[in-house]
Amino acid sequence: AQRLAYADRDHYFGDPDEIDIPLDVLLNPTYLKYRASERFDPSEKPIPGNPALVIDTLAAIPNWGRDNTIEAAGTTHLSIVDGNGNAVAMTATIESAFGSQRWAAGFLLNNEMTDFAREVPADGTQLANAVAPNRRPRSSMSPTMIFDNNNQLLMITGSPGGNSIPAYVSKTIIGVFDWRLTAQQAVDWPNIIARGDQVRVEIANNKGKMIATNLAKRGYQVVENLSENSGIHLIIVTPNGLDGAADKRREGLVRSIK
């Protein structure tokens, strides 16, 4: 599922002010059910889906070239809930570490242009995330707030980590709501990033090693990492109060201030 989601995201997403992103179609339950049924051999690189095959839509589905964006990791995230129930999920970035490494009025300038696709396909095919005047580059930042049917806050999550952020964040959502993990257990769970033709697995503990071994046996091209650079900050609202967790992989902390 993660490989399919990344394939669609990499293909269709760019600056919404400059290109047409068929978001409603990509999130349509009919398309999602069809997309989930598509299977790629573990050794294959998943290709983007085509919603037009299952949904009649007046909007043209863009036919972009294959994305080649390379995103750096120089981001931070914080999650906050105050005593009145106000909440913030904030992810901020200047792209790679120290941005452009240039100062102006006491601030580091970003180098966000590296978030664009850096190469033009040899055949001249246009890319959704191509660099262009007045265009914003695609971002993987995913500050997330989850509410129940009564619009009551259930959870806040987010993380730095470049294009791995969607995998880090979705891990915490699945961990909490599907696997019933505590906040810290969800954050500590081994990171798995299935993008393209490789599956990157964090093997810092036996659980991660077991996951990597099982995926390799199934034929996936597994890349083992001792540690990922996630920096998840997670808060769960429970009947007994707030359950917070900070990622031990970075320098984050959990604090209750009264």
Automatic annotation (TrEMBL):
Gene Ontology MF terms in the entry: hydrolase activity; transferase activity
InterPro entries reported in the protein's UniProt record: GGT_bact (IPR051792), GGT_CS (IPR055262), GGT_lsub (IPR043138), GGT_ssub_C (IPR043137), Ntn_hydrolases_N (IPR029055)
Entry annotated with the keyword Transferase: yes
Record-linked Pfam families: G_glu_transpept (PF01019)
Keywords: Hydrolase, Transferase, Zymogen
UniProt key word Transferase: yes
Protein's UniProt name: Gamma-glutamyltransferase
Organism: marine metagenome
